[in-house]
Amino acid sequence: MGLRGTYRERTVEYKVPKNLTFPYVFGVLALITFALQIISGTILVMYYKPVITHAFDSVNYTIMKEIDFGWLFRHIHAAGANFFLAIVYLHMFTGIYYNAYKKPRELVWIVGWLIYFTLLVTALTGYLLPWGQLSYWGTVVITEIPTSLADAPILKDFFGAIGETISMWMKGGYRLEDLALGRFFGLHVILLPLLLLGLVSIHLFLVRAAGISNPEGYEIDKEKEPEKVVPFHPYVTLKEGAIAMWYLALFFFFVFFYMHHFLPPDNFEPADPLKTPPHIAPEWYLLGFYEVFRSIPSKFWGFVAFNLILLLLLLLPFLDFSPIKSARRRPLFFVMFVVFVISCMALTILGTMSPTPTNAKLGMFFTALVFLFFLSLPVISVIEWGWYKTKGGQA
Ligand code: HEM
Fold first, then answer.
1. What is the pLDDT of residues 272-306, one digit of tens each?
2. Whose CA is nearest to atom 17 of ligand 1?
3. Residue 36: CB within 6 Å of ligand 1?
4. Which of 78, 176, 177, 306 could form a disulfide with 262 if both were Cys (CB 3.0 to 4.6 A apart)?
5. Into which CATH architecture does domain 281-395 fall?
6. In Å, how far are 8, 99, 112 from 344, measured between CA atoms?
7. Model-level pTM greater than 0.85?
């Protein structure tokens, strides 16, 4: 089968930049977490029952109490979902910081964005499955969001009908019931993981094809500059393997000792459509978008704003057309990157708080800063093209 040749080609003969920094490990950590999710998810699906009369008990009694080590696999899966999104966010921020979305890696970024979006939908569909109070009401909040289109300044009926249709389609009726649970289950265990698997494979193929970027932002010619690269094995495998061990130690520390962060007490109460819990908010990885949505006074514009942020994120390679790469060599970009990171964190924190008028104003302020980051990119690019030309095309 020529396996020995393939092994050499993929490991010892495959060269990567020597100067890769710590954050370059997040891609591999995301891969490890993905594997953990597939394994633990497969065990859970053996005992889970996707009907509203049995779903809660199948998770909280059968899996948590009756099946040997069922609790362990549930803990791994619930903590894994949070770790997965945290790692993917860190991976995305790394890509933005080092401008890894730029030529020749635009497609790596676009496929990465598709992974991110699919991952959010996967998390959303999985959240409903335990059929606890938080699962139920969290999903109610999210599935009601499209109805805000009815608040449109013009063509209210038209937009309202679209929003209502999307919401009804997500819920499978006026209320979340068996139909919704069955659909969410099917998507969560079959279609979305398959999609993720396909997208991650394409992503890795594209990373190989374009080559990994490097913190300095110069493209390395592996033939002409052999002193700037090292073989993937044993250098990167050992370095990232060691970091992966630390990561797993941290992960399992949470799994064994700190699970109340990932399985909040409210979700140990079965879903009750007649009893709304006092504080319902989406999971932390959606809070930034949720805060953008609710801090803008018009629901319609709130809906448009958070969708626009998702779109701008996708279009990043085209908004930032400066020939210079990496925040290390781009002072203006560096400042805007810091503004962006702080704003994302502030929006996430505000999302956990009650929507007082002051918090809403702060929410609007940080939303404006997020837009400022995206809109500043073409301006910074034009300025940097000027510098680039005066330096005789030296990026
Ligand atoms: C399941 C989720 C994901 C996995 C397993 C994954 C895996 C990887 C791996 C192993 C690499 C190569 C090494 C590295 O830079 O870490 C990589 C690179 C990259 N990924 Fe991902 N990734 C995922 C999600 C994403 C997302 C959501 C984005 C952006 C929206 C993204 C954007 C990129 C970019 C731009 C690179 C190139 C980095 C460079 O060349 O410096 N990835 N990914």
1. 999 998 878 889 999 999 999 999 999 999 999 99
2. 27
3. no
4. 78
5. Orthogonal Bundle (1.10)
6. 42, 18, 19
7. yes
